[in-house]
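Changelog note: in this version the structure field was regenerated for every chain. One regenerated record is shown below for reference.
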Amino acid sequence: AVFLALSLPVFLYLLFRPAEYRASSKVLIKPSRGFLNVSPAAGAREDSISMLPSPEILNTEIQIIRSPELAERLAKDVPFPDRVNGQTPRALTEAEIRQDGRRLGGLLRASPVRASNLIEISVTSPYKQEWTAQAVNRAAELYLEEHLKAHKTPGVEDFYSEQEKKLRLELASA
């Protein structure tokens, strides 16, 4: 009787709880001069150098993923299924985009993968698995775009364009 009294509520909960889908993606944090740790890693041999990003760098990248700007862009690119009428999503107002961005921010998770240069981005939602997978894939793409914006060296394109022009002139005159 005790077993039945304990197992029946659990069984009913599991039977009637709403479906929940989880999708995840991993992004690589590439080593660059900005975060190479030249000091030996704790517990490592004296001649080895750690190529793992510092916790501060990982936290910075995670904050880019969790940013409201990224969530709002994601809400615009992958609208919630309840916002879609028919085949094409309707145009969202700025207030709806901000609201959906906050909703998506609650569904979006980012965490470092232990002892690696990876960050796992995941979305857990009650919506269909196709939408959940599309949302997490687009979140990873948007992160890469935001990462490039945040870490881009100003003036690099102008410098390379100028160097290309010089080299073309030299090549043409040769």
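Spot check on this record: The CA atoms of residues 36 and 109 lie 26 Å apart. Helices lie at 2-16, 55-66, 68-77, 94-107, 129-151, 156-173.
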